[in-house]
Amino acid sequence: MALLLACARKVALYERLVRAGRWEVPPGKPMFRLVGRTLGLVGFGNIARAVATRAAAFGMRVLYCDPFVQPGQFATPGEKRELVRCSASRTSSPCTRRSRPRRAG
């Protein structure tokens, strides 16, 4: 969540500007609010569920994709869907033989 907030509010850009002695706001515009944005989670384990709870507190819509989790299995905000269009996405699934991408050819 901290990285998502930092990116949405352009913290790194403004930190560099302030250190350089510049205090104007326009260079980093537009800054985005998280309210109404969609967060896509690949995997819905303990960490992803904790992120979903925090993202929902910021007013974000949470979508997740996890073949091992049934819709409504957890009392955590989120809707199980194929992740097609999201404002942001986060992966919290382990890299195993079954989850590793297969090479073409």
Description:
The chain is of the alpha/beta class and 105 residues long. Helices cover 28% and strands 15% of the residues. The protein contains three helices and four strands; from the N terminus they run H-H-E-H-E-E-E. The chain has helices at 2-9, 11-19, 46-57; strands at residues 38-42, 61-65, 79-80, 88-91. A four-stranded parallel beta sheet has the order 3-2-1-4, covered by helices on one side. Helix 3 links the parallel strand 1 (38-42) and strand 2. The radius of gyration is 17 Å and the shape is elongated. The model has no long low-confidence stretch (mean pLDDT 81).
| Tally of strands | 4
- Number of separate helices: 3
Backbone structural class: alpha/beta
Helix content: 25-40%
How confident is the prediction overall: mean pLDDT?
81
Q: What is the gyration radius calculated from CA atoms?
A: 17 Å
- The succession of helices and strands, N to C, reads HHEHEEE
Task: Please tell me what the overall shape is.
Answer: elongated
Low-confidence sequence ranges:
none
Q: Report strand order across the widest sheet.
A: 3-2-1-4
Report how far the terminal alpha carbons are from each other. Answer: 37 Å
Percent in strands? 15-25%
The main sheet comes to: 4 strands, parallel
Fold blueprint:
Elements: H1 2-9, H2 11-19, E1 38-42, H3 46-57, E2 61-65, E3 79-80, E4 88-91
Features:
single chain; 105 residues; alpha/beta; 4-stranded parallel beta sheet; 3 helices; 4 strands; 15% strand; elongated
Short description:
The protein is of the alpha/beta class and 105 residues long.
